[in-house]
Design goal:
alpha+beta, D-Maltodextrin-Binding Protein, domain 2, 2 domains, 19 helices, 427 residues
């Protein structure tokens, strides 16, 4: 044992004298140079495909990783210039072909269908049990299959109720609604119509809900309603529960007239003060707050159908390793590094230099610190019971969104929800 210790000491002394890094020493470099069981002692170059994050933020994370792993070179390729549908086609059409990236961004709804073309994380870096402890159930459902982890979230995002506090004050409403019937009643009170007959198009709508063509996140709202009703998509779309939710959604236009197709897109209408309540993810709230800092904006959890069985809606992006990567172990070492709490804190802090509201952490533990943030509280407190899926807007799931859009428009034109959903399922 003393001889082993002496040998190790001599190696360390020689490193100091020759200015070598410990990663350059065979065997020992493997022990200290990478994640457990990952060899980063030899030069490796990784290509990372990213979306929407500021390059400066990603570069800060890359720099920190390369301080620890100087033999790894990371090239960041920002794919934000592509339309999301085109990006998705590139990811999915690469199955069985060489894709010139070692790390790719994938929407959480894609992973179950992509998993055959992805490399799971080495168990020496993280097992399924640890993943389930660190991240939200919706991330686990997306990424863990057959006890293998195929992707890791870089952050969390979902759906929340965004409202104009001044409009609430005008009708004597002090708190946001917590149930759908309360939401409906409030939307009616907040609606201001033109004309003495009080039936003309709205001067101000109570809520952006009920249409498909001027609400960017209409599919998320319906996905939320179906999730709260226990509807599995697409297997349960022919059920009475699915039909009732679609009817409830479209009745905000057909019966209540708190929103109509002539209004601007929901986010624009909210920023212009033309609608009192919308449903949106954090990045939309950031867009509104930065465009209209004078607005008094509130953010609350989404209304519930059954308070004892709360359900919310999540939509976020994850990172994964395609099976065409020649450096999959090192790629996962980098992803695992990004997912750790220290790097999550770094991402959040760096992003704060470029935006007012930053997407929440991926970590359940870290997000406990955001419950005092008025803009993020609603997202992180509802994340533990969130679900998600192919109905997520801005996810590249064009086929599913277009079919749902047709179903909503069919009901607005006179079809029953049963007829509209039947047509949707038969296409």
């Amino acid at each position: 044992m003393n001889r082993i210790r002496l040998t190790a000491l001599l190696i360390l002394v020689s490193l100091v004298l020759t200015a070598c890094s410990i990663q350059d020493v065979p065997v020992i470099g493997r022990l200290f140079g990478g994640g457990e069981g990952v060899d980063t002692s030899k030069p490796v170059t990784l290509t990372v495909w990213g979306l929407w994050e500021s390059p400066e933020v990603i570069q800060a994370l890359i720099n920190k990783y390369q301080e620890l792993k100087p033999n790894v070179t990371i090239n960041y390729d920002d794919r934000s210039i592509l339309k999301i549908d085109d990006y998705k086609d590139r990811i999915f059409s690469s199955a069985g072909q060489t894709i010139d990236a070692d790390v790719v961004m994938v929407h959480n709804s894609w992973v179950p269908r992509l998993k055959e073309t992805l490399v799971p994380i080495p168990a020496t870096l993280m097992d399924a049990g640890t993943f389930s402890t660190n991240f939200y159930p919706v991330a686990v459902k997306s990424a863990v299959h057959d006890n293998q982890v195929y992707a890791m979230p870089l952050y969390y995002d979902g759906l929340a109720l965004v409202y104009n506090k001044q409009h609430f004050d005008e009708v004597g409403q002090s708190e946001p609604p917590t149930a759908w019937e309360e939401f409906r009643s409030l939307a009616l009170r907040l609606t201001v119509r033109a004309g003495a007959d009080n039936t003309s198009n709205n001067l101000r709508s109570g809520a952006a809900i009920g249409t498909a063509d001027n609400i960017d996140f209409f599919s998320d709202i319906l996905g939320l309603m179906w999730s709260q009703a226990g509807v599995e998509i697409p297997t349960d779309l022919g059920t009475r529960a699915a039909q009732d939710a679609l009817t409830f959604y479209t009745n905000f236009v057909k019966e209540d007239k708190v929103w109509d197709p002539t209004m601007p897109e929901a986010t624009t209408a909210f920023a212009d003060g033309k609608v009192s309540m919308i449903f949106a993810p954090t990045w939309i709230v950031n867009t509104i707050v930065e465009a209209r800092p004078d607005l008094d904006v509130g953010v609350a959890p989404v209304p519930q159908a059954v308070p004892d069985r709360p359900a919310s809606w999540a939509s976020f992006w994850m990172v994964a390793v395609p099976n065409t990567s020649q450096n999959s172990a090192v790629a996962w070492d980098f992803i695992n590094f990004l997912g750790q709490e220290d790097q999550q804190l770094l991402r959040f802090n760096e992003s704060s230099n470029f935006r007012t509201i930053v997407t929440p952490y991926n970590s359940q533990t870290l997000n406990a610190d955001l419950t005092s943030n008025p803009y993020l509280r609603a997202y992180v407190t509802t994340a533990p019971f969130a679900s998600g899926g192919v109905m997520s807007a801005r996810s590249g799931n064009k086929l599913q969104i277009d079919l749902l859009r047709e179903a909503v428009n069919a009901v607005l034109k006179g079809d029953t929800s049963e007829q509209a959903l039947k047509k949707m399922l038969n296409q």
